[in-house]
Amino acid sequence: MKLELQRNIIIPSLVTIGNGICGFSALWLLCKVDAQPGTLTIDTPPPAAFAQAGWLILLGMVFDVFDGKVARMSGGSSALGAQLDSLCDLITFGLVPSVLTLSLGQLSHSPVWWQRATWFFSLAYFLGAMLRLARFTAENEPDEEAHLAFKGLPTPGAAGCMASLVIFYSYIAEFQKKELQLLERFIDPETLKRGVGCIPWILPPLALVLGYTMVSNRLVFEHVGSRLFSRKHSFDFFVYLIFAVIVAAVVPEILLPLLFFGYLLHAPIRLIAQHLAQRRAAEAADEIQG
What we know:
Blueprint: H1 7-32, H2 48-74, H3 79-107, H4 112-139, E1 149-151, H5 155-174, H6 178-182, H7 189-196, H8 199-215, E2 220-222, H9 224-229, H10 235-250, H11 252-289
Antiparallel strand pairs: 1-2
């Protein structure tokens, strides 16, 4: 059977391919890193390729936000686009964060058993992303209302947690930005670098947690892109959004981890709050009946 592409499918497909190009470029940067194991110390910041790969992951996220929106607006949603989107997401948000964790872990002073654990934790993240995308593709619906929330953490959100943390680590370890130099009056730079030096050790267990969170059916995460662009908002919301973008543009290395980890934590916190509320309601009902 010959596959023919309609004109309204080409533009969203090109946007999706932009996501895949970002993932490919990030992998290429990580493959170019040539450093001996155990070279990461307080005085030696990580190679620039790690932060650059993190930024490429975030750029791929921009393409991922708009490809589905462009497809639905142009009437170009198709099975081909859904498959292409999943393949690009698997590269940019599944494979690249796994390789990023492995590569960064190899440069730290860690025993052999921890390097092996890092490999398995990174594999768990990749498998979680793969299963998450396979389930999403199988259950995907073209209806706009079906894209307002997700079962399990979306792969861009998981990759954003990993990428923003690596960007923050490189930002502090280099300690070259002017706003950081102003902090020298209040915080010792060596103390701050020593504090973020644990990030290469945090990434592997974080990868394990994110891998499970992506396939969890109990956690429901909102689709940020659809919530922002598919609903009517007040003028106050528009003002808050503008100022948030300005702050993110000034100090993105600090704000981005806060945003991504806030997104990660809001679903389990909401689930715990709902469970506690139901438990209190049940206890109150028992007291009334008793």
